[in-house]
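Limitations
The structure tokens in this dataset are predictions for the assembled complex, not deposited experimental models. Users should treat interface geometry with appropriate caution, especially where small molecules or nucleic acid strands are included. An illustrative entry is reproduced here so readers can see what is and is not provided.
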Amino acid sequence: MRPRRAWHDDGVRVLVVEDEASLREGIVDLLQGDGHDVVAVGDGVAGVESGLRTAFDLVVLDLMLPRLDGMEVCRKLRAARPGMPILMLTARGSEDDKVRGLMEGADDYVTKPFSARELLARVRVLGRRNAGAGDAVDSVDADGATLDLARMMVVRGEARVALTPREVGIVRWLHKHKDRVVTRAELLEHVFGQRGDLQTRAVDMAIAVLRKKVESDPAHPRVIVSVKGAGYAWGSVA
Ligand code: CA
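Predicted assembly:
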């Protein structure tokens, strides 16, 4: 017989990054009460560390944080985990912050002070969008190497090569969409956090560096394959 855990079935894994202790505890109580699994930290550096280590279904991220501000946290998490939704908490009346937050790749925002109902509604929508999806992949075997995305490194035999958050993001995005070609503009938007295709060379340069780390023969790539006139594709060579 199926165990009774009905209110948990809709729960998602949420990372809360908020420095104000009473608000942080209030949010944690609220989300746990709604059936979510919650990890909470109190500064931006801890937020990045937690978000890089674990695939959350949603990050609730305060804008003003000690050690590393919310915008920078958003940029780093977005680069490494392009599919992980981010809900920004902004200060009352600061329209500029909202716009900037969304520009940096936050998926939505709520303005402080917010009601419990408002926050829970956003968490339910955003958290489920991606629950259990591609960003949960933390290790990929390719071309004789293991791409350890959780520890951000390529392991080939005895050799270990570190990956940057952006490189991890590129690998995640290509692997998540391995059934099709990924365009440069798409990588720019989802991994680099920039719109338009003025800087597609930045993508090509990043791919060239990444290939030196993941390909056994970077001159003849088998993991990240170029598709002429279109972009890049995951080569799925295990
Ligand atoms: Ca704050």
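Some entries come with short summary sentences. For this one: DSSP finds nine helices and eleven strands in the chain.
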